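Subgroup meeting minutes
Present: P.N., E.W., G.H.
Scribe: E.W.

1. P.N. recapped why we're keeping a running log of single-chain structure predictions: easier to compare across weeks, and new members can see raw inputs and outputs side by side.
2. G.H. added today's entry (176 aa).
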Amino acid sequence: MKKSYFILIFASICMLLFSLSACTPKQEVTVYFAAEEDTDFFLKAQTIEVDPSPDLYQASLNALIEGPETDALFATLPPDTSVYAVTVENGLAIADFSKELLTDTSIPRSSTTETLAIFSIVNTLTEFDEIQKVRITIEGQQTGEIEGYYIEDFWGHIGLGQDFTRNQNIIIENDS
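Output recorded in log:
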């Protein structure tokens, strides 16, 4: 009898611990996807729930890479891109991505898509009060060459040789 009671208590504790570890609370973040209005493209905010551990900034960028939850918005970053790290110091976030951000051409390359890609990252991260500027690196570098692509040129128009601040002018407000 004592052995059965012990097994029942042990199993109950194990189930409780498993359910607690599997139920990490989600946190809402705002990410920015491309939106089309008439013949112009903008960024539009979408609130998404993410798992904040181990890193909320990285989880926000991963949600951006995964793409929008609605057909009315469009992805701005290639889907095979990985976020290696996001570090924040003195208001500057350094977001380090895998080479796919540079080399994957599944997002068409133009000055418009490059602007949307860069500022979807920047505006997503500057949603956090502690971030005022964003530096984008690829494979830990801001300059150099990867598979024939120059990091500092990014997609060929704006480039990554600077720290970016939030761009409110590219944001279209959500419908009320």
